[in-house]
Amino acid sequence: MARNVEFDEQLAISKAMDVFWKKGYNGTTMRDLTEAMGINSSSLYNTIGDKHQLFIRAIKHYTESRMDAAKKQLQQITSPLKAIEKYINASVYTITNEPNSCLAIKTTFEVATGDAEVQKIIRADSEFTYQLLIGLVKKAIEKKEIKVSQDAEMLTDYIINHFTGWHESFIIHRDKTRIKKTAQFLIEQLSL
């Protein structure tokens, strides 16, 4: 009689996420995953599925955790411009201190271009960021905290495009000062 294998599925997904984050989807083997999760391959297949299904669960876990953290981080800030500044500075901190870069950005370039299911998750993450920031930008314009432009859509795109550029720059140069200086300049531009 086969014995039932019990494990904390969320913890296992979190551990798998860390492996995908470090090695990428294509660089991760089933052995890497089962070792990190502390289970055998048959338990993985019986409870979660194959590597792709596990990756879907891991990337969802990652993006949903980021969304929850952003909401909690910004909900207490009454000034929309201060909330935007906090979001920018938090992004800079993550970019310059996360050893494996952003899992969503890595996934975008490695997997999302050819995988509709992954692309859907990454698109939802991107749309969340856009809606969060455009809401803040519109409020900051209404409160006259931002005067540099009345075009909320353009300003939101302008802010978001910096994040991807900073990720690339930091991966290549590993220069925290460079990223922090450009982030400060961005914040100053919004405050004009």
From TrEMBL:
DNA-binding segment(s): 29-48
Keyword Chaperone applies: no
PROSITE patterns per the UniProt record, alphabetical: HTH_TETR_2 (PS50977)
InterPro entries noted in UniProt: Homeodomain-like_sf, HTH_TetR, Tet_transcr_reg_TetR-rel_C_sf, TetR_C
Domain HTH tetR-type: from-to ranges: 6-66
Key words of the record: DNA-binding, Transcription, Transcription regulation
Domain of life: Bacteria
Keyword Metal-binding: no
Protein name from the UniProt record: TetR/AcrR family transcriptional regulator
Source organism (scientific name): Pontibacter silvestris
